[in-house]
């Protein structure tokens, strides 16, 4: 009798069946295809955002955002400043429990460098309804080249659970038509 401690006698195994070998080969080839897709989508698919990253102290990032708001504020929406930066400029949005700050007012067709960072914990930047998602990590400034191609009002929601007020964490991006 065989058990965990008593090994079976010699010759207990049979070589893999031809169809089994075939499936192992297909599975392996498919793994390689998916593996190759990662760099492919990065370069060709526009799926993974290419941008700059830099370390930043949360307080230093806050200072940049404050300066940005001071320079370009044009209004206020529910206590949050509405900021209209000139096309081509560096624009800032910060995530913190539980707010996206400030509201951005952009121009359709203009290119901006959007900086994102968090002041406290991980948050998830999710632009609704266009389905652009980005992980926001404290201590890092992510600079993304963005060109809004549709006008309208977009909502930023947080898709990374960040505490009791997570579901209240919504922001706004307004894109004015050309
Ligand atoms: Cu959240």
Key structural traits:
178 residues; elongated; binds copper (II) ion; alpha+beta
Strand order of the largest sheet: 2-3-6-12-11-8-9
> If helices are DSSP runs of H or I spanning 4 or more residues, what is the number of helices?
2
Flag low-confidence runs: none
Dominant shape: elongated
Number of strands: 12
How much is the average pLDDT?
Answer: 91
Structural notes for this entry:
- With 178 residues, the chain is an alpha+beta fold.
- The chain has helices at residues 18-45, 58-72, and strands at residues 51-55, 73-77, 80-83, 90-96, 99-101, 103-107, 112-118, 123-128, 132-136, 140-146, 152-158, 170-176.
- A seven-stranded mixed sheet has the order 2-3-6-12-11-8-9.
- A hairpin with a 2-residue loop joins strand 4 (90-96) and strand 5.
- The radius of gyration is 25 Å and the shape is elongated.
- The model has no long low-confidence stretch (mean pLDDT 91).
- Bound molecules: copper (II) ion.
């Amino acid at each position: 009798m065989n058990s965990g401690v008593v090994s079976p006698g010699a010759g207990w195994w049979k070589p893999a069946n031809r169809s089994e070998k075939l499936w192992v080969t297909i599975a392996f080839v498919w793994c390689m295809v998916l593996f190759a897709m990662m760099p492919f989508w990065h370069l060709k698919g526009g799926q993974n955002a290419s941008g700059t990253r830099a370390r930043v102290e949360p307080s230093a990032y806050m200072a940049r955002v404050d300066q940005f708001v001071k320079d370009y504020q044009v209004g206020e929406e529910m206590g949050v400043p509405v900021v209209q930066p000139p096309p081509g400029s560096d624009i800032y949005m910060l995530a913190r429990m539980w707010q996206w700050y400030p509201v951005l007012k952009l121009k359709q067709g203009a290119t901006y460098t959007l900086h994102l960072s968090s002041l406290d914990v991980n948050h998830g930047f999710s632009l609704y309804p266009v389905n652009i998602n980005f992980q926001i990590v404290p201590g890092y400034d992510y600079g993304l080249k963005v060109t809004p191609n549709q006008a309208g009002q977009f909502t930023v929601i947080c898709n990374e659970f960040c505490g009791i007020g997570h579901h209240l964490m919504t922001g706004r991006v307004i894109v004015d038509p050309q």
